[in-house]
Amino acid sequence: MNPTPQVLPKDRRDLGGPRQPLLIVRDLKKHFPLKKTGFGLRRERLAVRAVDGVSFEILKGETLGVVGESGCGKSTTARLLMQLTAQDSGELVFDGQALGAGLSLREYRRQTQMVFQDSYSSLNPRMTIEDSIAFGPTVHGVSRREALARAHDLLARVGLEPARFAGRYPHELSGGQRQRVNIARALALEPRLIILDESVSALDKSVEAQVLNLLQDLKQDFGLTYLFISHDLGVVRYVSDRVLVMYLGEVVEVGEAEALFERPLHPYTEALLRSMPSTDPLKRTEQAPLAGDPPNPIDPPSGCRFHTRCAYAQPVCAERAPRFHEALPGHAVACLRHEPESGYDRRLIPVQEVAHV
Ligand SMILES: Nc1ncnc2c1ncn2[C@@H]1O[C@H](COP(=O)(O)OP(=O)(O)OP(=O)(O)O)[C@@H](O)[C@H]1O
Ligand code: SF4
Ligand SMILES: [Mg+2]
To answer: I need a labelling partner for 247 at 20 to 30 A (CA). Which of 3, 49, 120, 264 fits?
Structure first.
């Protein structure tokens, strides 16, 4: 349809105005089959249900934070959104166009970029910094001269003086500097959506704060939208407009960051937040709020997947899968306790527990 990558003018970028979805994710699934071992026929069908029917929207100009324990499917979701991993089923709709129908993979890949945790992983150790940044645009048809000029501009924009850094190799940079290069590299194709998967997690705290501030500035200047994955709930709260919580390959809660952190609806979110180290010594809990490891994603629990660890679980929770629904305006949850006529008996909960529901 539109073979030449089009640079969107700033006024068409994604900040300001009513928030519309930039990316709609519909019922995305990715199961990793286990290698065949032994003779069991059943064994051949076993799979890690890494992402198991995930639906959500990323709104134009927002930062959507993603949290959840290790192994819940955050990175697999990110890789599916980047189409680095092919989904088993499900659909992506970017700015109103379905991927594979109205929108080509090539154009989608230009508009959606990712910055990984490991600052080395996306940089070729044998390429200079300027060549690494210029590589993407040249593949997309920009002349080498123009791509290099863009690389120098971007280096300056991410706080690395081009005269000093352009000709260096990745191993000559610190982790924070390399992550700045990766950000410049992601920006080189003028994307609209950037997926940040633990992108600042490996950095020292002071460097992390600097890179977070840089990301905030770039978001404003370039009209970007972020999906921000992190295990650090404090950072997620600081950067996110809305937050999505995953548990065992499913989305269990999505809401405005402030509402979700102040008044979580899902018992898992509540437990995650209680596990955050508190700065107030009186609020520190002795007991680990989330006991045990998450269940095996090969054979998740029946009904609500969280019922084996949930402080509010009732027998119905093992039988019936909760429906993900908007329980409060702009605040969606998958929990029978918040679902009308689900068979969950709210009278059995102590009064102080329901007071805020
Ligand atoms: N290529 C793969 N092959 C088989 N299993 C995989 C593969 N990639 C991920 N998994 C499994 O899928 C599940 C989800 O993994 P994923 O990396 O998405 O979790 P995560 O939420 O990003 O965890 P972390 O917080 O540790 O980064 C895990 O059980 C993981 O072992
Ligand atoms: S459905 Fe039941 S087990 Fe699941 S989170 Fe809600 S109360 Fe807990
Ligand atoms: Mg991960």
So the answer is: 120
